[in-house]
Amino acid sequence: MNNSTNKYKFNWDSAFVNFIFTLGILILATIICAVIHQQNHNGSTPALMIFILAILVIARMTNGYIWGIGASFIGVVVVNFIFTYPYMKLNFFLEGYPITFITMLVVSIITSTTSTQIKLHQKLKIESEHEEVRANLLRAISHDIRTPLTSIIGSTSVLLNEDCQLSEEHKRQLLQDVQDDGQWLIRVTENILSITRIDGNNQLVKTDELAEELFETAIRKFNKRHPDSVPIEVNLPDQPLIVPMDMILIEQVLLNLMENALIHGTGLSKIVLSLESRDNMAVFSVMDNGACMPDYMFPTLFEGRLKSDKIINKGNKRCMGIGLAVCRTIIDAHDGTITAYNLEDREGVVFSFALPVKEMESNDEN
């Protein structure tokens, strides 16, 4: 209900910005024409062309038709009153005046229409991409939830079947499978909850966090989940990096990437976490020294539609499609970028994401 009412709510902030922009461009065009008019002793001023250019800019940069059309009316009056002889008088019966008015009006309408259509097309394209990502996430979620649930039901059915004579070792293995599947469901649920922290407009409440502290908390949780995991190395920059972020969500990204490396990094012996500053961005990297990934996987790696037959699956390991799709959603909401690539020697994979850095204020008061 709220979404439907907000759809038709007038955006006063946008209208105010459009008004200020339109007023500023018209004032600028008037000043330019006045300067040229004062310097030209023969009295000729290209006021009409300057105002047509101003209307073109206004119609292109503002939303809707009203600002371009309104600027056309104002432009015609200003050119007629200030820059057309007799000066400082309105004369609507000048030769060619109707053509001037119609020309400026047509320019503004055509430009406004074209701009509106372009913006609408861009909006529809973005909405279509969001719908596709949402559909891919739903497919990945249904797959990742159905698989462990089926395994849990199967294992418990065998354990509850009194006619089955199972060894203690077999029973223990079935219970271990149930526990592993339950933990997997917990991780899937955490990813789903991470998505719910992002509202429909991908707006987050960010706080300034020390990026180095993120590694400490993520590694602690990772080691608690995987006590027998491979060693984790950490490379940190010399200078501290302050990053505006939702700490819980970015921590979830790191956990997803580390677990992805552990699950699919065949033959890995270590995971390396790195942090560096690059072009006013904090770049977080998760590298493993396992087997490289097939090149065909990279274009759709973060779209949540990886097929299980395209993943290196062994034993009870499952696709990380939803986890990687969640990573991309979270990073996009933080105005960052995320990518993955094989190392040059093709002995490992690097997942890297970059977030905008807050510039440190200098405290040189001495």
Q: Helical element count?
A: 9
Shape: elongated
- Strand order, sheet with most strands: 2-4-5-7-6
Residues in β-strands, percent: 5-15%
Please report the total strand number as a whole number: 7
Number of domains: 2
Mean pLDDT: 77
CATH class label of the largest domain:
Alpha Beta
Description:
- The protein is α+β, with helices and mostly antiparallel strands and 366 residues long.
- It has 2 domains: 114 residues; 156 residues, 2-Layer Sandwich (Heat Shock Protein 90).
- The protein is built from 9 helices and 7 strands; from the N terminus they run ααααααβαββαββαββ.
- A 5-stranded mixed beta sheet has the order 2-4-5-7-6. Strands 1-3 form a two-stranded antiparallel ribbon.
- Helix 3 packs parallel to helix 5 and helix 4 runs antiparallel to helix 5.
Short summary:
With 366 residues, the chain is α+β, with helices and mostly antiparallel strands.
Write the layout of secondary structure elements.
Blueprint: H1 2-7, H2 12-39, H3 47-61, H4 66-82, H5 97-160, H6 168-196, E1 207-210, H7 211-225, E2 232-235, E3 242-245, H8 247-264, E4 271-278, E5 281-288, H9 321-333, E6 337-342, E7 349-356
Parallel strand pairs: 2-4
Antiparallel strand pairs: 1-3, 4-5, 5-7, 6-7
